[in-house]
Specification:
Elements: H1 2-17, E1 21-33, E2 40-45, E3 54-57, E4 61-68, E5 76-79, E6 104-110, E7 116-122, E8 134-139, E9 154-162, H2 167-175, E10 185-188, E11 197-200, E12 205-212, E13 219-223, E14 228-233, E15 236-243, E16 246-248, E17 253-259, E18 266-273, E19 281-288, H3 307-316, E20 343-354, E21 357-362, E22 365-367, H4 374-379, E23 387-388, E24 401-403, E25 405-410, E26 414-421, E27 427-431, E28 436-443, E29 461-462, E30 464-467, E31 471-478, E32 483-489, H5 492-496, E33 500-506
Parallel strand pairs: 1-4, 3-8, 9-12, 11-19, 20-26, 22-24, 23-25, 25-33
Antiparallel strand pairs: 1-2, 4-6, 5-7, 7-8, 9-10, 12-17, 13-16, 13-18, 14-15, 14-17, 18-19, 20-21, 26-31, 27-30, 27-32, 28-29, 28-31, 32-33
Bound molecules: 2-acetamido-2-deoxy-beta-D-glucopyranose (6 copies).
Protein name: L-ascorbate oxidase
Family: Belongs to the multicopper oxidase family.
Signal peptide: 1-17
Length: 536
C-alpha cells in the first residue's frame, strides 16, 4: 500500500509537471487606504489594494506562498476555483487551518479544466470588509477556440459595497449580536467616485471581467452610450447578447465585450445598488485615448426596481451550446437535462435571534465552527468534531439553533438543490468545488410542479446563484469532486453569523484518482495539532 501510494504520487507529479507552473509570493499586511476619502486600515497584498490579479491558462499550476503579516489568523479563498480532489486548498474555515500571524502557507492550486472569470478574497474574521481580494482570469489553452476575437485588452473590474469602518469594528458589531448598518459607498477596483478609469482606443473591442466582491448588495453596472455584450459567466461561454445595464449579485462574475464605437470622449461608468433605499451610486470613466473631452450629460439611469426585470435578464443569460469550453469537446455535449437526479435538497434561509443575538440559518441550523477544520478532522479520523447529517434535506420549520452543519452526499450522485428565500433581501449562494446548472428561478414557493419550467437545455453552469426576494432558485449538480465543500450565503454578515454549511462529498475509495491526501505542507491546528501530514 505505501509503495502503491508512492508510485502514484510520482505519477501525479509527472502528470502535473506537463502543465506550466506560475509562482506567486504574497505578503499580506495592514495599510492605510482612503477609498471613500476617510483613512481606514485596509488589508493589502504586496502593498496593493485590491490585490494583484492572477492571470492563468486552463490547467496551469498556481503556487501562491502567502505570508500573513497581520495580527490575526488569515486564509485566502479562491472563489470559483474548483481545487479538484483537493478541498484542503479551498482556504475556508472548514477545510484548511488558518495561517497564524507571522507565518506563511503555500497554496497549490490547479486551474483544472476551467476557463473564465473568478476572484479571491480573505475568508476569515470579516477581513473581506478590509480588502485582500483580487481578480482571477483563466484563459483558454491556445488550441481551443474562444467564441469571440481576442480583445484589445482584458480589464478586471471589481465592484462592491464598502464601509468606512474597519473590519475589526464591523466584526465587533456582529459578534455582539447586532446587524451591520447600511454600507457607506461602492468601490470600483478599490476606489471611490470618479477615481477609476479604463482607457480604450476608438474602434477596438475590450473585455471587462466584472465581479461583485462586495459584502451584501446586488449591483447594477452600466456604461454611458455603450452596450455590453455578455460572453462569459463564471466559466460558461454564453449566448452573446447585448445589454445596456447588468445586474451582478454579490459573489458573481461575468465578462462583457465593449466596443469603442462612439465619439472619442470620456463616458460615465455607473455602479449602483439594487433594491435598496437609499440607492448607493458610484461613477468611473471609460476614456477614449487622445480625447480631452470630459464626460458630460446625465448619468445613465438604472433599470426599474421590479424584481421581474432582473429575473428576466438572468433567464436570458444562457449557454452557447456550440461554443467551446475548457476542453476540446463542446460544453453542450453534456446533456445535463437528460440525467435523472437522485436526490432533492431544499434549503431555506432564515434570520432570527439565538440567546438574544442576531443569527442567520439554513434549514434552521446556524453554523458555528468546531475547534478543528472539518476536512482536517475527517482526514485524521478525529471523531466528535462534526456529525454528518446534522442538517436535514428539507426545511424543518423549527426555530434557529446552532450546530456545525455538515450534509453528507455520495460521490458521483447527480442532485437537485432548491434554494427557497422567503425573506425580503436578495440572497446569493455559492458552492465551493463545483460549477452547477442554474435550471430555474421564479417568485413564490417552489413545488415539484416548478420543475415543468426548468431550462433543461442551455442553462448556464456557474458557481454562485442569486435567489430573489420571496422566490426560489434551483440548480443541478454533478457531485464529481470528492471533498468537504462550503455552501454559503455570499451576503457576508449572514455567512459570518451562520448562513452556511459543508457538503461532504464522500467515497469509500482511497484512490488518488478520487481524492488527494492532505498536502505535505498543511498547517495543523485544533485537535490535529502535532499529527503528521504523511503516514510513516
Ligand atoms: C511583509 O511586509 C512587511 C511590511 O512591509 C515587512 O516588514 C515584512 O518583512 C514583509 N514580509 C515578507 C515575508 O516579505
Ligand atoms: C479599527 O478602528 C478602531 C477604532 O475605530 C481601532 O481601535 C482598531 O484598532 C482598528 N482596527 C484595525 C485592524 O486597525
Ligand atoms: C513558507 O515559505 C517557505 C519559503 O520562504 C517555504 O519553504 C515553506 O514551504 C512555506 N511554508 C508553508 C507551510 O507553505
Ligand atoms: C456561439 O458560438 C459559436 C461558435 O463560436 C459562434 O459562432 C456563435 O456566434 C455563437 N452564438 C451566439 C448567439 O453567441
Ligand atoms: C463625480 O463626477 C460627477 C460628474 O462630474 C459629479 O457630478 C459628482 O459630484 C462627482 N462625485 C464626486 C464624489 O466627486
Ligand atoms: C429517468 O426517469 C424516467 C422516469 O422515471 C425514466 O423513464 C427514464 O428512463 C430515466 N432515465 C434515465 C436515463 O435513467
Amino acid at each position: 500500500m505505501p509503495l502503491r501510494l508512492a508510485v502514484l504520487l510520482v505519477l501525479l507529479a509527472v502528470a502535473a509537471a506537463e502543465d506550466p507552473y506560475r509562482f506567486f509570493t504574497w505578503n499580506v499586511t495592514y495599510g492605510t487606504i482612503y477609498p471613500l476619502g476617510v483613512p481606514q486600515q485596509g488589508i493589502l497584498i504586496n502593498g496593493q489594494f485590491p490585490g494583484p490579479d492572477i492571470y492563468s491558462v486552463t490547467n496551469d499550476n498556481i503556487i501562491v506562498n502567502v505570508f500573513n503579516s497581520l495580527d490575526e489568523p488569515f486564509l485566502i479563498h479562491w472563489n470559483g476555483i474548483q481545487n479538484r480532489r483537493n478541498s484542503y486548498e479551498d482556504g475556508v474555515y472548514g477545510t484548511t487551518c488558518p495561517i497564524p500571524p507571522g507565518k506563511n502557507f503555500t497554496y497549490i492550486l490547479q486551474m483544472k479544466d476551467q476557463i473564465g472569470s473568478f476572484f479571491y478574497f480573505p475568508s476569515l474574521g470579516y477581513h473581506k470588509a478590509a480588502g485582500g481580494f483580487g481578480g482571477i482570469k483563466i484563459l483558454s489553452r491556445p488550441l481551443i477556440p474562444v467564441p469571440f476575437p481576442p480583445p484589445a485588452d482584458d480589464f478586471t473590474v471589481l465592484i462592491g459595497d464598502w464601509y468606512t469602518a474597519n473590519h475589526t469594528d464591523l466584526r465587533a458589531i456582529l459578534d455582539k449580536g447586532n446587524k451591520l448598518p447600511f454600507p457607506d459607498g461602492i468601490l470600483i477596483n478599490g476606489r471611490g467616485p470618479n477615481a477609476t478609469s479604463f482607457t480604450i482606443q476608438q474602434g477596438k473591442t475590450y473585455r471587462f471581467r466584472i465581479c461583485n466582491v462586495g459584502l451584501q448588495n446586488s449591483l447594477n453596472f452600466r456604461i454611458q452610450g455603450h452596450k455590453m455584450k455578455v460572453v462569459e459567466v463564471e466559466g460558461t461561454h454564453t449566448l452573446q447578447i447585448s445589454y445596456s445595464s447588468l445586474d451582478v449579485h454579490v459573489g458573481q462574475c461575468m465578462s462583457v465585450l465593449v466596443t469603442a464605437d462612439q465619439q472619442p470622449q470620456d463616458y460615465y461608468i455607473v455602479v449602483s445598488s439594487r433594491f435598496t433605499t437609499p440607492v448607493l451610486t458610484t461613477t468611473g470613466f471609460l476614456r477614449y485615448a487622445n480625447s480631452n473631452r470630459p464626460a458630460s450629460g446625465p448619468l445613465p439611469g438604472g433599470p426599474t426596481t421590479e424584481i421581474d426585470w432582473s429575473l428576466n435578464q438572468a433567464r436570458s443569460i444562457r449557454t452557447n451550446l456550440t461554443a467551446s469550453g475548457p476542453r476540446p469537446n463542446p460544453q453542450g455535449s453534456y446533456h445535463y437535462g437528460m440525467i435523472n437526479t437522485t436526490r432533492t435538497i431544499r434549503l431555506s434561509s432564515s434570520a432570527g435571534q439565538v440567546d438574544n443575538k442576531q443569527r442567520y440559518a439554513i434549514n434552521s441550523v446556524s453554523f458555528v465552527p468546531a475547534d478543528t477544520p472539518l476536512k482536517v478532522a475527517d482526514y485524521f479520523q478525529i471523531s466528535g468534531v462534526f456529525r454528518v447529517g446534522s442538517m436535514s434535506d428539507a426545511p424543518t420549520g423549527g426555530g434557529i439553533y446552532l450546530d456545525t452543519s455538515v450534509m453528507g452526499a455520495d460521490y458521483r450522485a447527480f442532485i437537485e438543490i432548491v434554494f427557497q428565500n422567503d425573506e425580503d433581501i436578495v440572497q446569493s449562494y455559492h458552492l465551493s468545488g463545483y460549477s452547477f446548472f442554474v435550471v430555474g428561478m421564479d417568485g413564490g414557493q417552489w413545488s415539484s410542479a416548478s420543475r415543468n419550467q426548468y431550462n433543461l437545455r442551455d442553462a448556464v453552469s456557474r458557481c454562485t446563484v442569486q435567489v430573489y426576494p420571496k422566490s426560489w432558485s434551483a440548480i443541478y449538480v454533478a457531485l464529481d469532486n470528492v471533498g468537504m465543500w462550503n455552501l454559503r450565503s455570499e451576503f457576508w454578515a449572514r455567512q459570518y453569523l451562520g448562513q452556511q454549511l459543508y457538503l461532504r462529498v464522500y467515497t469509500t475509495s482511497t484512490s488518488l484518482r478520487d481524492e488527494y491526501p492532505i498536502p505535505k505542507n498543511a498547517l495543523l491546528c485544533g485537535r490535529a495539532s502535532g499529527r503528521r501530514t504523511r503516514p510513516l
